[in-house]
């Protein structure tokens, strides 16, 4: 009996020392471990995104077009400082409506802020980027502008683009410490 319990304890000890396998999820692999921990602390009611949060049809379409299937994470220089920043759609732990977090790389970690996702279901969200340039409001909209919304927005660096796949696209540009946006597609 003693031998059996000792063997079971030894096996449990050895299993617990096996290092965790790196994730093969295309979304999670784009988020550094330290940032992932910071996002989970900053947004305890949210979790990190995974490819399976998006619809299988949209994932397949992205892969067919040469993508990795991750529609919820985008890495680029969103503030023009030459460092890779990360925009990520964060699913709720309960429900479907996402939040988009933008983590700007700093010397000592990340500056995390949020931008509006404009969708009510994580499976329809797309997080992408647009090259520097002038982004103009779609003519399909005729409602008054919101406080941080612009009819035209010049972005001297890469913009974050969020919206519903094959539907809306809202370009966000980080200008003088705040996020301004323009609806480029509706």
Can you describe this structure?
Helices cover 18% and strands 32% of the residues. Strands 1-2-3-4 form a 4-stranded antiparallel β-sheet, covered by helices on one side. Strands 5-8-9-10 form a 4-stranded antiparallel β-sheet, with no helix packed on it. A two-stranded antiparallel ribbon has the order 6-7. The chain has one domain. The chain is α+β, with helices and mostly antiparallel strands.
Brief account:
This protein is α+β, with helices and mostly antiparallel strands and 186 residues long. The chain has helices at 2-16, 33-42, 56-64; strands at residues 73-76, 85-90, 99-106, 109-115, 125-130, 133-136, 152-155, 159-164, 169-175, 178-185. 18% of the residues lie in helices and 32% in strands.
Q: What string, H for helix and E for strand, traces the elements in order?
A: HHHEEEEEEEEEE
Uncertain parts: 1-22
- Strand arrangement across the biggest beta sheet: 1-2-3-4
Rg from alpha-carbon coordinates: 20 Å
By DSSP (H or I, 4+ residues per run), the number of helices equals: 3
Helix and strand composition category: alpha+beta
Mean pLDDT: 89
Proportion of residues in extended strands? 25-35%
Helical content (DSSP H or I, runs of 4+): 10-25%
Oligomer: single chain
Shape: globular
Distance between the termini: 70 Å
> Main sheet, how many strands, which sense, barrel?
4 strands, antiparallel
Number of domains: 1
Number of extended strands = 10
